[in-house]
Amino acid sequence: MAERQRTPRPSGSERRARLDTPTEVKRRPLVKRPRFDADDFGVFAEQFARFMGTASFLLWMTLVVGVWIVWNLLAPQSWRFDSYPYIFLTLILSLQASYAAPLILLAQNRQEQRDKVVAEQDRQANARAHADMEFLAREVASLRMAVGEVATRDFVRSELRSLLAEIEDSRASAAEAPSDSEEDGTAT
Protein backbone atom coordinates (compact mmCIF):
# COMPACT_ATOMS: atom_id res chain seq x y z
CA MET A 1 0.00 0.00 0.00
CA ALA A 2 1.14 3.41 -0.89
CA GLU A 3 1.23 5.91 1.89
CA ARG A 4 -0.90 8.98 1.53
CA GLN A 5 0.81 12.24 1.93
CA ARG A 6 -1.13 14.84 3.82
CA THR A 7 -0.87 18.46 2.95
CA PRO A 8 -0.49 20.53 6.06
CA ARG A 9 -3.41 22.83 6.85
CA PRO A 10 -2.51 26.46 7.02
CA SER A 11 -2.47 27.95 10.48
CA GLY A 12 -4.74 30.81 11.49
CA SER A 13 -2.27 33.52 10.49
CA GLU A 14 -1.62 31.83 7.15
CA ARG A 15 -5.36 31.51 6.42
CA ARG A 16 -5.87 35.22 6.91
CA ALA A 17 -3.00 36.09 4.65
CA ARG A 18 -5.39 36.94 1.83
CA LEU A 19 -6.81 40.42 2.04
CA ASP A 20 -9.99 39.65 0.17
CA THR A 21 -11.13 37.10 2.77
CA PRO A 22 -13.11 38.60 5.65
CA THR A 23 -12.13 37.70 9.15
CA GLU A 24 -14.55 35.87 11.37
CA VAL A 25 -15.54 37.90 14.36
CA LYS A 26 -18.15 36.64 16.76
CA ARG A 27 -19.60 39.34 18.88
CA ARG A 28 -21.95 38.81 21.72
CA PRO A 29 -24.63 41.42 22.21
CA LEU A 30 -24.26 43.42 25.38
CA VAL A 31 -27.98 43.28 26.04
CA LYS A 32 -30.23 40.46 24.95
CA ARG A 33 -33.09 41.68 22.85
CA PRO A 34 -36.49 40.49 23.89
CA ARG A 35 -37.92 37.85 21.58
CA PHE A 36 -41.56 37.92 20.59
CA ASP A 37 -43.68 35.83 18.31
CA ALA A 38 -44.59 37.82 15.21
CA ASP A 39 -47.81 35.87 14.75
CA ASP A 40 -48.99 36.58 18.28
CA PHE A 41 -48.23 40.26 17.84
CA GLY A 42 -50.02 40.23 14.48
CA VAL A 43 -53.08 38.63 16.05
CA PHE A 44 -53.03 41.31 18.75
CA ALA A 45 -52.79 44.02 16.08
CA GLU A 46 -55.74 42.56 14.19
CA GLN A 47 -57.86 42.35 17.33
CA PHE A 48 -56.92 45.92 18.25
CA ALA A 49 -57.72 47.18 14.74
CA ARG A 50 -61.05 45.35 14.78
CA PHE A 51 -61.92 46.89 18.15
CA MET A 52 -60.98 50.37 16.97
CA GLY A 53 -63.35 50.00 14.05
CA THR A 54 -66.39 49.35 16.22
CA ALA A 55 -69.07 51.69 17.44
CA SER A 56 -68.37 50.70 21.05
CA PHE A 57 -64.79 52.02 20.74
CA LEU A 58 -66.07 55.34 19.40
CA LEU A 59 -68.63 55.55 22.20
CA TRP A 60 -66.04 54.77 24.88
CA MET A 61 -63.57 57.25 23.36
CA THR A 62 -66.26 59.93 23.24
CA LEU A 63 -67.24 59.17 26.82
CA VAL A 64 -63.63 59.41 28.06
CA VAL A 65 -63.00 62.70 26.20
CA GLY A 66 -66.32 64.09 27.46
CA VAL A 67 -65.60 63.15 31.07
CA TRP A 68 -62.06 64.57 30.70
CA ILE A 69 -63.36 67.93 29.46
CA VAL A 70 -66.25 68.14 31.95
CA TRP A 71 -63.96 67.22 34.84
CA ASN A 72 -61.41 69.88 33.91
CA LEU A 73 -64.14 72.50 33.48
CA LEU A 74 -66.33 71.85 36.53
CA ALA A 75 -64.02 70.31 39.13
CA PRO A 76 -62.49 72.52 41.81
CA GLN A 77 -59.33 74.27 40.69
CA SER A 78 -57.08 72.07 42.85
CA TRP A 79 -58.53 68.87 41.32
CA ARG A 80 -58.11 69.92 37.70
CA PHE A 81 -55.15 68.34 35.94
CA ASP A 82 -55.53 69.72 32.38
CA SER A 83 -56.67 73.28 31.88
CA TYR A 84 -58.54 74.74 28.88
CA PRO A 85 -56.28 74.13 25.89
CA TYR A 86 -56.30 70.47 27.07
CA ILE A 87 -52.69 69.92 26.10
CA PHE A 88 -52.45 66.67 28.07
CA LEU A 89 -55.62 65.35 26.36
CA THR A 90 -54.13 66.25 22.98
CA LEU A 91 -50.92 64.45 23.93
CA ILE A 92 -52.83 61.32 25.01
CA LEU A 93 -54.91 61.29 21.82
CA SER A 94 -51.78 61.80 19.68
CA LEU A 95 -50.03 58.97 21.50
CA GLN A 96 -53.04 56.73 20.96
CA ALA A 97 -53.12 57.64 17.25
CA SER A 98 -49.36 57.11 16.84
CA TYR A 99 -49.73 53.55 18.14
CA ALA A 100 -53.02 52.84 16.40
CA ALA A 101 -51.83 53.71 12.89
CA PRO A 102 -48.98 51.15 12.72
CA LEU A 103 -51.14 48.49 14.35
CA ILE A 104 -53.87 49.08 11.78
CA LEU A 105 -51.31 48.94 8.96
CA LEU A 106 -49.92 45.69 10.36
CA ALA A 107 -53.43 44.23 10.48
CA GLN A 108 -54.04 45.34 6.89
CA ASN A 109 -50.77 43.76 5.74
CA ARG A 110 -51.68 40.46 7.38
CA GLN A 111 -55.12 40.59 5.78
CA GLU A 112 -53.52 41.30 2.41
CA GLN A 113 -51.27 38.27 2.80
CA ARG A 114 -54.26 36.10 3.68
CA ASP A 115 -56.14 37.48 0.68
CA LYS A 116 -53.20 36.59 -1.58
CA VAL A 117 -53.18 33.02 -0.26
CA VAL A 118 -56.95 32.71 -0.74
CA ALA A 119 -56.71 34.20 -4.24
CA GLU A 120 -53.96 31.71 -5.15
CA GLN A 121 -56.04 28.82 -3.81
CA ASP A 122 -59.05 30.08 -5.77
CA ARG A 123 -56.93 30.34 -8.91
CA GLN A 124 -55.70 26.77 -8.47
CA ALA A 125 -59.25 25.51 -7.84
CA ASN A 126 -60.46 27.34 -10.94
CA ALA A 127 -57.64 25.83 -13.00
CA ARG A 128 -58.54 22.34 -11.75
CA ALA A 129 -62.24 22.93 -12.49
CA HIS A 130 -61.36 24.22 -15.96
CA ALA A 131 -59.23 21.15 -16.66
CA ASP A 132 -62.04 18.89 -15.39
CA MET A 133 -64.55 20.65 -17.62
CA GLU A 134 -62.30 20.26 -20.65
CA PHE A 135 -61.84 16.56 -19.86
CA LEU A 136 -65.59 16.07 -19.49
CA ALA A 137 -66.26 17.95 -22.73
CA ARG A 138 -63.82 15.67 -24.57
CA GLU A 139 -65.48 12.62 -23.00
CA VAL A 140 -68.96 13.80 -24.02
CA ALA A 141 -67.73 14.45 -27.56
CA SER A 142 -66.21 10.97 -27.78
CA LEU A 143 -69.43 9.45 -26.43
CA ARG A 144 -71.45 11.32 -29.04
CA MET A 145 -69.17 10.01 -31.75
CA ALA A 146 -69.44 6.47 -30.36
CA VAL A 147 -73.23 6.71 -30.13
CA GLY A 148 -73.34 7.88 -33.73
CA GLU A 149 -71.67 4.62 -34.74
CA VAL A 150 -73.97 2.45 -32.59
CA ALA A 151 -77.28 1.25 -34.04
CA THR A 152 -80.19 2.93 -32.35
CA ARG A 153 -83.41 1.22 -31.40
CA ASP A 154 -85.34 2.89 -34.22
CA PHE A 155 -82.71 1.86 -36.77
CA VAL A 156 -82.80 -1.77 -35.62
CA ARG A 157 -86.62 -1.79 -35.74
CA SER A 158 -86.67 -0.41 -39.26
CA GLU A 159 -84.12 -2.99 -40.40
CA LEU A 160 -86.13 -5.80 -38.80
CA ARG A 161 -89.30 -4.53 -40.48
CA SER A 162 -87.60 -4.46 -43.87
CA LEU A 163 -86.22 -7.99 -43.32
CA LEU A 164 -89.65 -9.21 -42.23
CA ALA A 165 -91.18 -7.65 -45.33
CA GLU A 166 -88.55 -9.37 -47.51
CA ILE A 167 -89.26 -12.73 -45.83
CA GLU A 168 -93.01 -12.29 -46.30
CA ASP A 169 -92.46 -11.35 -49.96
CA SER A 170 -90.28 -14.41 -50.54
CA ARG A 171 -92.90 -16.65 -48.86
CA ALA A 172 -95.68 -15.13 -50.92
CA SER A 173 -93.70 -15.57 -54.14
CA ALA A 174 -92.85 -19.14 -53.13
CA ALA A 175 -96.52 -19.88 -52.52
CA GLU A 176 -97.50 -18.49 -55.93
CA ALA A 177 -94.80 -20.28 -57.90
CA PRO A 178 -95.50 -23.98 -58.63
CA SER A 179 -93.33 -26.30 -56.70
CA ASP A 180 -90.85 -28.66 -58.44
CA SER A 181 -92.91 -31.77 -57.53
CA GLU A 182 -95.99 -30.45 -59.29
CA GLU A 183 -94.00 -29.76 -62.43
CA ASP A 184 -92.67 -33.31 -62.41
CA GLY A 185 -96.22 -34.72 -62.06
CA THR A 186 -97.66 -32.86 -65.06
CA ALA A 187 -94.86 -33.92 -67.23
CA THR A 188 -95.57 -37.65 -66.73
Automatic annotation (TrEMBL):
User: Is Transferase there in the keyword field?
Assistant: no
Q: Which UniProt keywords apply?
A: Membrane, Transmembrane, Transmembrane helix
Transmembrane region(s): 57-74, 86-106
Quick one: where's region Disordered?
Answer: 1-24, 169-188
- Asked if the Swiss-Prot or TrEMBL record annotates the protein with the keyword Plastid, the reply is no
Q: Where is the composition biased (Acidic residues)?
A: 179-188
> Protein name, please?
DUF1003 domain-containing protein
Q: Which organism is it from?
A: Nocardioides acrostichi
What lineage does UniProt assign to this protein's organism? Bacteria, Bacillati, Actinomycetota, Actinomycetes, Propionibacteriales
